Amino acid sequence: MRYQINTLHRGRFIWILLGSLFFVGYLLSLTTLQEIYKILILLFCIPVIMWSAVRFSKDTSTWEIIDNKIVINIFGKEILLPIDSIAYIKNHIRSGGNLVVFHKKGKSGATRIWRNKIFANNDQFDPLISHLKELGIEIMIG
Description:
single chain, 8 strands, alpha+beta, four-stranded antiparallel sheet, four-stranded mixed sheet, elongated
């Protein structure tokens, strides 16, 4: 089964968001406007900056479940997760999306993927979660 999920590169998103806010703030500090106007201009820039950060950080990932494996193609990389090695999945629900964390059996590290809901169309996340539950993978809400 194949699912298309809207994903977000967290690091790139934060760098663009904060960098743009600091850059606009710096440019406003060079002007001779009163402080209240500078603050208002910066506040009205936030939605545009958020939209830009999402636009340059988003990607559609492909999740395939084949032969007891979950294959995730995201940002030009392929992540292979054998279903037998997954202890549980923690779904951290946020206003801008979901942080999906695959916790593996043993001492190996967790795999984190950020699902994007900001400025994005609906994706196939809910059917994916239902399919993972049917496979016997425990999904915890975080």
